[in-house]
Design goal:
The chain has 171 residues and is α+β, with helices and mostly antiparallel strands. The protein contains five helices and five strands; from the N terminus they run βαααβββαβα. The protein has a five-stranded mixed sheet with strand order 1-2-3-4-5.
Length: 171
């Protein structure tokens, strides 16, 4: 979902079967690898003005068995190889007409398979899972610098709703 393919052989998924299923404990290391790939990609692509906001003091958090148990995590795989995942969670919003929110925590597709519809299929299935759990809307956020993700969410029919601002406070 993040960068267009550059200098890589394109992959034709026409004759490949993509299976999308709920993540299992055995998938943790594969999902972690994609999470790290996503984080590394994002760090490289933040604008200089936003790099300080995202700078970590600790390693990217590890996915745990409880994450799989307590959230909706779906994986996309081809020939038993995980090529993408989407992570969703459900939250209640008090005092709102739209009160049960499905939140897209993360989505990542291996760079070789981006722009092939894998992310859209993951989004569609997560939306179905949210509907089954009685969510009345779904939300996500992306970085100001991530125009590719913004375009992908817009193409999926999602609308921008807020803009987040930040400022470093002098010590």
């Amino acid at each position: 979902m993040f960068s267009p393919l550059r200098y890589e052989k394109t992959i034709d998924l026409t004759f490949m079967e993509i299976l999308i299923r709920h993540a299992e404990n055995k998938d943790l290391s594969h999902i972690q690898k994609l999470m790290t790939e996503l984080n590394d990609f994002q760090i490289k692509n933040f604008s200089n003005q936003n790099k300080p906001f995202h700078k970590r003091t600790k390693e990217y958090p590890k996915i745990k068995k409880d994450d799989i148990k307590n959230n909706i995590i779906l994986v996309a795989e081809i020939d038993n190889n995980i090529i993408g995942y989407i992570w969703g969670s459900i939250h209640k919003r008090k005092s709102h007409e739209l009160s049960i929110m499905g939140y897209i925590d993360e989505i990542c597709v291996n760079q070789k398979y981006r722009t092939k519809g894998v992310g859209k299929r993951l989004l569609k299935l997560l939306e179905t899972k949210f509907r089954q759990k009685k969510c009345d809307h779904m939300v996500t956020h992306t970085d100001y610098d991530n125009e590719i993700a913004q375009k992908s969410y817009s193409n999926y029919g999602m609308l921008p709703v807020t803009i987040e601002y930040w400022k470093e406070i002098e010590k």
